[in-house]
Each structure stands twice: as C-alpha cells, then as structure tokens.
From TrEMBL:
InterPro entries on file: Glutathione-S-Trfase_C-like, Glutathione-S-Trfase_C_sf, Glutathione_S-Trfase, Glutathione_S-Trfase_N, GST_C, Thioredoxin-like_sf
SUPFAM superfamilies xref list: GST C-terminal domain-like (SSF47616), Thioredoxin-like (SSF52833)
Family: Belongs to the GST superfamily.
Ranges where the GST N-terminal domain occurs: 1-80
Source organism of this protein record: Siccibacter colletis
Domain of life, source organism: Bacteria
Domain GST C-terminal as annotated: residue spans: 86-222
UniProt-recorded name of the protein: Glutathione S-transferase
Pfam family for this entry, one: GST_C
Xref: Gene3D superfamilies: 1.20.1050.10, Glutaredoxin
Length: 222
C-alpha cells in the first residue's frame, strides 16, 4: 500500500488529493509542525531533507510534490484521469506542474518572510528595522512581481477552465497550493477567474475527501 508521510498544513495535501482522484488505497503517517512551524525531526528518518510530502511505494522513497504527482499519474493512471490527451494540453500540464514551485512559490515564500520581519521571533529591538526592511523590499520589487504572476494566471484561466486547458489534470493539483497562497498573501482583489477556478477545485468530491483525510487545511496570510 502507498504510504503518505503527511505534515499538517503542507504540500502533502496535494498528494492525498491526487490519490483520492485516482481512487487508490493509501495509508497516512501524520506529523505535526513544531511551534516554529518547521517540520519535526522525525521526518528526517524518512527522507534526508526532512520535508513533506514523502511517499513510500514498493520500497521506493519519493519526495517533491511534482515528482510524486508525475509518478502517481504514470504508474497508477492508465485511464488518464489526471493527464490530458492532446499534445498542446500535455505541454501546458508540464509547464504549470513546474511553474508552481519553480517560479511562483519562491515569491510567495519571500512574501511571508518579509512580512514577518517585524514580528516574533525576531528580537523586539530589531523589529522596527526588520519591518521597515520588509516593507521596503515588498514595495520596491516583490509586490510588483506578484502582480505580474497574478495577472498571468488570471489571463490564462480566463481562456480555459483548467490549467492544462479543458481537462482537469495534475497541473491543477500542483497549482492549488501556490494559488491558495497567492490569494491569502498577495493582497490582490478582482481575480475573478482565479477565484472561480478555486471554487471549482473545492467542489470536487476527491478534494473534499482529501480534506477529510488530511485534516483542516489553511495557508496563513502574510
């Protein structure tokens, strides 16, 4: 049986969702974040990086969300439930699968970090300087980058229901985490098509089952 090493409020929620879409049996091994929001040391016993998700399957130890999703689709999806059929949609699926963590999530992580420089656990004496630095970087550069990416996603979803086109795919599963983070941290409004896509994925029975299995899921705002 597939084993998912699942950290609460983490990217491993996407793996559980994919397994539910494919109707595959799996077991969850649960981990709770430390007070610092870091993963517990126990995860390093599973994979040297100590991150989640990690999936075990027939002696294989698989890490990285995109790689896991590709493996699940290629290994357990003969009916192509999570893979589009046309060459153009296949290419789009691959692009968004890698764009999610390669281009968008680093900016959203920076948004979280720079927004936190004026708060605990930064020492109180440094918080005014940290806050000023964080706000300065966001105003001068980071927020503009996020607007560019938000517009890019919004314009794409204005033309197609799903990220790979007319077909739901692993690209939508992979993009769910950064899009939720963008909506929580980006400080942007009027992303009509992005919000509509988010409502569509929330309405999928497999998404709802994944929340039931993985536990409450909420991405903190900046």
């Amino acid at each position: 049986m597939l084993i998912v090493h699942h950290l609460n409020n983490s990217r491993s929620q996407r793996v559980i969702w994919a397994l539910e879409e494919l109707n595959l049996p799996y077991q969850i091994v649960r981990y709770q974040r430390e007070p610092t929001m870091m993963a517990p040391p126990a995860l390093k016993k599973v994979h040297p990086l100590g991150k989640s998700p990690v999936v075990e399957d027939n002696g294989l130890i698989l890490a990285e969300s995109g790689a896991i999703l590709e493996y699940l689709q290629e290994t357990y999806d003969p009916a192509s439930l999570l893979r589009p059929e046309s060459p153009g949609e296949k290419l789009a699926c691959r692009f968004w699968l890698h764009y999610a963590e390669g281009s968008l999530m680093p900016l959203l992580m920076m948004k979280l970090v720079f927004s936190s420089l004026g708060k605990k656990p930064v020492p109180w004496v440094l918080r005014p300087v940290g806050k000023a630095l964080g706000q300065g970087v966001q105003k001068a550069w980071l927020n503009k980058q996020l607007v560019t990416h938000a517009d890019y996603i919004e314009n794409h979803l204005a033309q197609s229901a799903w990220f790979a086109g007319d077909t739901f795919s692993i690209a939508d599963i992979q993009m769910s985490f950064p899009v939720m983070a963008l909506l929580a941290r980006g400080g942007m409004r009027d992303l009509e098509h992005t919000q509509a896509w988010y409502q569509r994925i929330q309405g999928r029975p497999a998404f709802q089952r994944a929340i039931e299995q993985g536990g409450p899921f909420e991405i903190p705002g900046a």
